Amino acid sequence: MTKLEDVAEEAGVSASTVSRALSRPDMVSEATRTRVLDAAERLGYRHNQAARALVTGRTGLLAFSVPSLANPYYAPVIAGAQAAAEEAGCELIVVVTDGSAEREQALYARLSERVDGFAAAAPVSAGTQLSQVARKRPLVTLNRRVRGVSSVVVDTPAGMGALGGHLAGLGHRRIAYLGGPDGSWLDPRRLSALREAVPDCEVAALGPYPPEFEAGVRAADAVLDTGCTAVIAYSSTLLIGLLHRLTLLGKSAPHDLSLACADDLSASGLAMPEVTALHVPAAEAGRRAVQRLLETVTSGPTAATHQLLPVELLTRASTGRPAA
């Protein structure tokens, strides 16, 4: 069985340096840490997490909570978070809250003594509850701002303004917005930004809808009842369901209805047809949330920071001028 001393000899450093590189990477240079990790990998050495916890008070485990694994938006978010954790020599536990504040709080309580901190994607718990969690364990929120808690927010509200401006520029004056999910902190901000960007247009707010294909199918009749000539959905999965139902009804985009989305379908492999959308840096958001969490875990309590990540408007074939 490979021992810590074997790794030290392979890396050409002392055993204490190996221990610091694995348990307290902030105490060694990046070059030394890389040399130690490379040696450990070559020899198949696995550091004892329990021993590290006894020495440092940290487990090397981080928890990342998401509302759902069915929503393809979270796949790149989790990938980015995982990459950031691995680069720091930590392990990431992904937990699913089902969009329930009660389940979210139960997960925090159950894992609080087992992990070094939490990153929470779109948490739905009350701000006071999240602040209480942050006082016990480091917490970073993704796509949610809470006073005193660090956050990373993708600026989809600004993107909604750009989408609205694009549609208004094509001549649309009645736009439907498929919003949700229920309890979302970002959703009312998206709707408000859309309305502010198109003051001369009528915006019909429909929903809230869960980010599900079936919800998009159900939304189709409501959209047609509005008489709108363009639709913006907050979720790519929701939009695909809407498109499916419209196709069955003999409707096409953009001839009968222009379609747009607040996240990029191509990132989920769902670009059929090519839909005007916002390119959302989902992987970067997950990475930054975990990086900020690790900074808090390592340095201790610090002033909360709030990072805002820009989005990019991608205009494609699904939007055009309204039918005469």
Automatic annotation (TrEMBL):
It holds the Pfam family LacI. The keyword Transcription applies. One of its GO terms (molecular function) is DNA binding. InterPro entries: HTH_LacI (IPR000843), LacI/GalR-like_sensor (IPR046335), Lambda_DNA-bd_dom_sf (IPR010982), Peripla_BP_I (IPR028082). Keywords: DNA-binding, Transcription, Transcription regulation. It comes from Streptomyces cavernicola. The keyword Metal-binding does not apply. This is LacI family DNA-binding transcriptional regulator. SMART domains: HTH_LACI (SM00354). Residues 2-56 form the HTH lacI-type domain.
